[in-house]
Amino acid sequence: MVKAKTKEIVVDQEERAFQQQERIFIAAKNPVKKFINKQGRPRYWKNVGLGFKTPKTAIEGTYVDKKCPFTGNVSIRGRILRGIIISGKMKRTVIVRRNYLHYIRKYQRFEKRHKNFPVHISPAFQYSIGDEVIFGQNRPISKTVRFNALQVNRKSRKAAKTFSKF
Question: What digits encode the pLDDT tens for the residues 116-155?
């Protein structure tokens, strides 16, 4: 019995349709060396730049997410923002709250305001409500999502809603 020298391709199959990375040809006899990770498996990943490192779970993981900035077909351009996760009820999408101060010239004082952003978060990140997220702008991913998570800082000491009562 002779075994063929093919690389084992492991992919998380959680959807009805077959999931595979767009840039990886599964039936390749000799896969491109550029796309081989440390386990010897074919995996596409990239560096998004802007001083953000690609997470190890993106390089070594088996998930398939075409909207992930590290393993998918999405580039970060535009604004880079920071906020706190307040909701994670959607699949691979979280709501991030940004607090800011608005100056009222008439009274020479500031008032507190906030904005909520729907942000796509890759399966490469482990998160919980209250974590701080750095996210970047990209092309529209869906009807409401225009931002993608680049970094998750676990549980900041600030509350998710710091000024709910005055």
Answer: 999 999 999 999 999 999 999 999 999 999 999 999 998 8
Strand blocks (E) in 14-155: 80-90, 93-104, 109-120, 132-137, 147-153
Identify the helix (H) or strand (E) that includes residue 29.
Answer: none
HEC sequence for 35-46? HECCCCCECCCC
**Phi, psi (5° rounding) for residue 113?**
-135, 170
Cα distance between residue 112 and residue 89, in whole Å: 26
In this predicted structure, the answer to whether residue 87 has a pLDDT above a threshold of 50 is yes
Q: How far apart are CA 21 and CA 62, in angstroms?
A: 10
Residues for the chain: how many in total?
Answer: 166
State the pTM of this model. Answer: 0.80
